[in-house]
Specification:
This protein is α/β, with parallel strands linked by helices and 423 residues long. It has 13 helices and 8 strands. Bound molecules: the ligand C=CC1=C(C)c2cc3[nH]c(cc4nc(cc5[nH]c(cc1n2)c(C)c5CCC(=O)O)C(CCC(=O)O)=C4C)c(C)c3C=C and fe (ii) ion (2 copies).
Length: 423
């Protein structure tokens, strides 16, 4: 029987007498490839699935198919930075949507599901959205939520800097809760041909509630995809030299403009103490970050302190608490304080309002004289350079510096060499 010459996939599929492996799957485009029973792109060795229902946001198909399958193209590398997420607007309904998604995550609130479902839906979501909306209104800008704006700027600055360094990568950002969602952003990256993905959650200190939760979201997204990209995931960078350096330089620059205070307070987002006793390394990583920054700044142990902010609910969270510490400072003779939040890679509600406003009031009302909040690293050059180094290290071996043409040339040379050796 004379079967038409087909792509290796199709010939294997239809049990063609043509040796399915006579054309190597990795081969560059060959002119003898012709359409089979399914459409097989004649030049580019594409397998194009024509049914648009099979690709797109969660259709009736179990797996999202790959829209564009091209052996000869270079595997594109994507860098996805993520942060926690923020409401779409500073309004009660938007806060309700955001908090519902965020607080339903079992990584965030580790309480038996049925009990928590009732507390969340019957109590918290009836009270908190209005209160939080008011707080968000105090930090909201014309362009939107500060966390969103800083994250957008970080992604753009990283994309520009990595390009300057000669890397051919697609940089995007996503939020763990709310928008732009991880799934939509991964859809965009897949559509742009990303086959190698580096995920960098912008949480320097590992915590199950943040870093692992982001991994869960990526893993859960992958359960829906036919062709998952090669994955690298940064779980933490709390002691990364460039990150420590960026924090220390930021504080030094503040000292140059304003001078030093009695005390430098490193305030981190808190978590329930139970998570620490159950083995979460977050607490230790926060302390290590503080120590390394302090060493870089030549600070003695009594010149700085580590505290935890943003408590939620009634159980004990990591101590010492930032607010209680600041209230106690003046009576202990500490009248001037500078607060820096190394765990927040971008300014957000928890830094601008809670540290910049609320805790300032506590300190001043308790008799404090001078209170300064040192802003987060945001999209500042030092931060972008530090993150770029971290990204570069994690991209190693992924060949981001060669173009598609250079890659095709390299491939041809390797084949010619291999054929020469075989003869
Ligand atoms: C309910 C428990 C919470 C845990 C555990 C928690 C851990 C945690 N969070 C961050 C970073 C951020 N949290 C932010 C806001 C925020 N956090 C919680 C609760 C928990 N966080 C709530 C309810 C909120 C919403 C604000 C409010 O209603 O009070 C933010 C700011 C987001 C923004 O839009 O600006 C960040 C960032 C970390 C790093 C962390 C554990 C280490
Ligand atoms: Fe939080
Ligand atoms: Fe510890």
């Amino acid at each position: 029987m004379n079967w038409p010459k087909q792509s290796p996939h199709l010939s294997a599929y239809f049990k063609s007498p043509v040796d399915p492996y006579q054309i190597q799957c990795d081969d560059p485009p060959k002119s003898n490839l012709r359409g089979g029973l399914l459409r097989n792109d004649r030049n580019n060795h594409h397998l194009i699935l024509k049914n648009p229902l099979k690709y797109g946001p969660r259709s009736w198909m179990k797996y999202i198919n790959t829209p564009h399958y091209d052996h000869s193209s270079q595997a594109k590398v994507g860098v996805l930075i993520t942060n926690l997420g923020t409401p779409d607007e500073a309004t009660k309904p938007a806060l309700r949507r955001y908090l519902k998604e965020f607080l339903a995550d079992p990584r965030v609130v580790e309480v038996p599901r049925l009990i928590w479902w009732m507390v969340l839906n019957l109590v918290i979501l009836n009270i908190r959205p209005a209160r939080s909306a008011k707080a968000y209104q105090t930090v909201w800008t014309d362009e939107g939520s500060p966390l969103m704006i800083h994250t957008q700027h970080q992604a753009q600055a990283l994309s520009d800097h990595l390009k300057e360094l000669g890397h051919n990568v697609i940089v995007k950002y996503a939020m763990r809760y709310g928008n732009p969602s991880i799934t939509n952003t991964l859809d965009e990256m897949a559509a742009e041909g990303v086959q190698r993905l580096l995920v960098l959650p912008l949480y320097p200190q590992y915590c199950g509630a943040t870093s692992a939760s982001t991994f869960d979201a990526i893993a859960s997204d992958f359960t829906q995809r036919r062709w998952i990209p090669e994955l690298r995931f940064v779980t933490h960078y709390h002691d990364d030299a460039a990150y420590i350096d960026a924090c220390a330089e930021k504080i030094k620059a503040h000292w140059e403009d304003h001078g030093k205070a009695n005390k430098l307070l490193f305030s981190y987002h808190g978590i329930p103490k139970r998570y620490l006793t159950n083995g979460d390394p977050y607490h230790c990583e926060c302390y290590k970050t503080s120590r390394l920054i302090a060493e870089q700044l030549n600070l003695d142990e009594d010149e700085y302190m580590t505290t935890f902010q943003s408590r939620f609910g009634r159980e004990e969270w990591l101590k010492p608490y930032t607010d209680e510490t600041l209230k106690s400072f003046p009576s202990a003779g500490v009248h001037s304080v500078q607060v820096f939040c190394p765990g927040f890679s971008a300014d957000c509600l928890e830094t601008i309002e809670e540290i910049g406003e609320e805790n300032r009031e506590y300190f001043m009302e308790a008799g404090g004289k001078r209170y300064e909040y040192i802003t987060a690293l945001n999209a500042e050059v030092g931060h972008i350079h530090a993150l770029s180094q971290l990204i570069e290290r994690n991209l190693s071996g992924w060949n981001t510096k060669t173009t598609a043409t250079e890659n095709a040339q390299q491939l041809t040379q390797q084949r010619a060499k291999a054929m020469g050796a075989a003869q």
